[in-house]
Amino acid sequence: MLNLKLSEIKNLEVFSDGNYIPPDMHVVTNFLELLEVHFRAEHGPEFYSKELKLNLEVLNGLTKCYLSKTVHRLIDERIHQEALKLLKYSTLNIKQISYELGVSDPTWFSRCFRKHEGISPRAFKKALSEKS
């Protein structure tokens, strides 16, 4: 799951009873829950807006307001976070990790990984093995 804490969520109003969460914040938390369940299979923002019965522009507005990120960026970051975990803790090769994350083109996966980390997934995995 994305490592978000309530303290990192902007514009979250704390009310006197401490239990009230604004309805639009419920939408954001529902999106994050959906993302956690479907990120391997559903990479398009449209899926999440449809599931939440919201216009994508509205959902993007809410995620930008509370998390300072677009829906697409949150999906991308969640996939990348899982890729890091699989590279560190699994014995899967790069192609298997790509398929595990729902990316049918391992070359595309490697390109996206390099964009985030500055090195290829293979180099990342090799550097990890050299450290241990």
From TrEMBL:
Keywords: DNA-binding, Transcription, Transcription regulation. It comes from the Bacteria. SMART domains: HTH_ARAC. SUPFAM superfamilies: Homeodomain-like. InterPro entries: Homeodomain-like_sf, HTH_AraC. GO terms for molecular function: DNA-binding transcription factor activity; sequence-specific DNA binding. Pfam families: HTH_18. Residues 29-127 form the HTH araC/xylS-type domain. This is Helix-turn-helix transcriptional regulator. It comes from Pedobacter frigoris.
